[in-house]
Request: fold
Amino acid sequence: MLFGEQGLHGFLRWLGELFSIKTPELRRVPIVAGMYGTTIANEKEAQKFWGQIARGGVEYEDNAPATVLDAWLKSLAEDRRSVEKLLPGNFYQGCIYAWNAFRESRAITAIKYKTDKGLYRVAE
Reply:
């Protein structure tokens, strides 16, 4: 149904380039929603950020938001019990937390994903 939406074609093409056999951790619906939200906010920077994540983060920068988010998503993909405790909003929240840190050029050490105080606003 959404393939008929011409405004989504660029995003869907890019998503097809980003997904590979090496990026199964990115294929959850709330993570794709985070990708879409960041793309709407700033397409060029979103492609850079998510490209870093697809490549395993930023080399030699353990506290780079893309590196921390990639490690978090991979750890969740490996630990089924942790994933079962998370709701879709938690995945989305974690992605937006890392994105906002990326846009602020701020290093992080962990992903904040709790939604009890509401969802983060997507930074431009």
The chain has a mean pLDDT of 93. The two ends are 28 Å apart (CA to CA).
